Amino acid sequence: MASLNVPGVEDRDEAGLSAPACRAVTDEGDVLLLVPGDSAAARAAAHAQDDDLAAVMEITDVAPVSVPHRIRGRAWVAGWLTPVRNDDRSAAALLLAERHPVGELLGIGEALRPDAVPGLHGRAAWMMLRLEVGEGAVDDLWGAESVEPDAFAAAAPDPLVAHEAELLQHLHTAHGEQVRGLCALLGDRGAVCGQRDRAVPLGLDRFGLRVRFTDEAQRSFDARFDFPEPVRDIAELRRAMHTLFEAAAR
Fold it and tell me: pLDDT tens for residues 201-225?
């Protein structure tokens, strides 16, 4: 989930529909955002002309499985907001459509169909905005850290990101006992895992699997199970998971 805040500009949309419908990062590290044309951010950007309009995008990462405390982390990207104009509109619209195929392009340089975005029916127009990144920060399960613009631009998506939700749900429903059996790899800490404890796969990336263990008293702790080496695709993930489950069974 993402929200866009322009300091000093009040957004009266209590339904939350002025949040970016979709977003994408350009090769240069700018963030492209598709927002309703009547949103506070769109109005402020349109009236700012060439003035610098400070803005902050907040991203909330929510676990795709049911666990206590489902928010896995938050990220903030601060910078300067401008409308995407003229010749840049074509490339921006195509990039947004490629990363988020939520509708058809009305034409070269035009935004996505308003009625193609679930839950946003009836919005009359859309505006594409560009957020030039000045600084970023992340606070998640691994800790808090600032992110420089160069590092943000150079970052690449994890190869499992598009499949993570489906994979976690599959592990939870089809391999629940094997996931709970991973506590055998935790040494003394794993000895506290009881037969009635819940084990829910919380996060998955190329480096490993994170599981949240919860006992009958609703006390929870997270454990990270690293793969022998980073995986590059689903085939390598299957082998890595098989290795983890085999090690736990022994």
Answer: 999 999 999 999 987 777 888 999 9
